[in-house]
Amino acid sequence: MTRMLGWGMPEQGWRKGPWTPEEDKLLSEYVSLHGEGRWSSVARSSGLNRSGKSCRLRWVNYLRPGLKRGQLTPQEEGIIIELHAIWGNKWSTIAKYLPGRTDNEIKNYWRTHFKKKEKSTQKQEKRKHQLQLQQQQQQEYDMKNVLSQAAETSSEKMSESEGRQQMVLTNPNSEEQCMPVMYQDVASWLDTVGDDGISGGLWNLADDYTVAWIRQLCATN
DNA sequence: AAGGTCCCCAACCGCTTGTCA
DNA sequence: CTGACAAGCGGTTGGGGACCT
């Protein structure tokens, strides 16, 4: 069965995979003679056994004159960060502000350089959550010990001075009702740990230029 | 040295949008 | 208005090289 693809040509027969130098030459010559556009006729007339889609992609991302090759500059990286904050994954829109760079290139760059940072941030969040749980469990455990001791001496009320932990005993046999009213602020504790421990990872991964740019962005926002 | 893992990037795929008869 | 086709876009995949164990 012959399946039709988006560009109105049969799937059978089109070459796929990496382009050869000969194919590049054919495509470049054809486009320089006839101009960009009408990609399906490029596919038919140029002698290339490639779909129009494939021809367009190859031209736009690789053969088009004026394309920059190689690593993005810190300035370009900064522009990407800033524009992505505005437009999200509108790669072609972002690409318009980076002459010589393609949407595909920017998209790939974002995925490899910033997604991993996002991933590491997620790991940090997970770690933080686990620590919170551990902290909570430890406090509950401590609390049970305190309660069991307290239950021995008193079954009424126990309160400590202001600004410190406070708890209310209603029924020593019911765990739920014995939950403390006030706990130490776990988040504030995590904040103190976070500077050189938990949240340090993101900035270790980010290069200086990125950090500088993000700081600059934060300062302007 | 060899096998495994990670990273980068070219290319493909499917969906959406624009244009025209 | 509608359907067909062309073109564009963003997400995803897969190959190959670099790096690690």
TrEMBL record:
Q: Which PROSITE patterns match?
A: HTH_MYB, MYB_LIKE
Annotated Gene Ontology cellular component terms: nucleus
The HTH myb-type domain covers: 15-67, 68-118
**Where is this gene product found?**
Nucleus
Pfam families on file:
Myb_DNA-binding (PF00249)
Show the InterPro entries listed in the entry. EOBI/EOBII-like_plant, Homeodomain-like_sf, Myb_dom, SANT/Myb
Q: Which GO terms of the molecular function aspect are on file?
A: DNA-binding transcription factor activity; sequence-specific DNA binding
* Keywords, ordered alphabetically: DNA-binding, Nucleus, Repeat, Transcription, Transcription regulation
Main location as per UniProt: nucleus
Point out the coiled-coil segments of this chain.
none
Where's the Myb-like domain? 11-63, 64-114
Q: What is this protein called?
A: MYB transcription factor
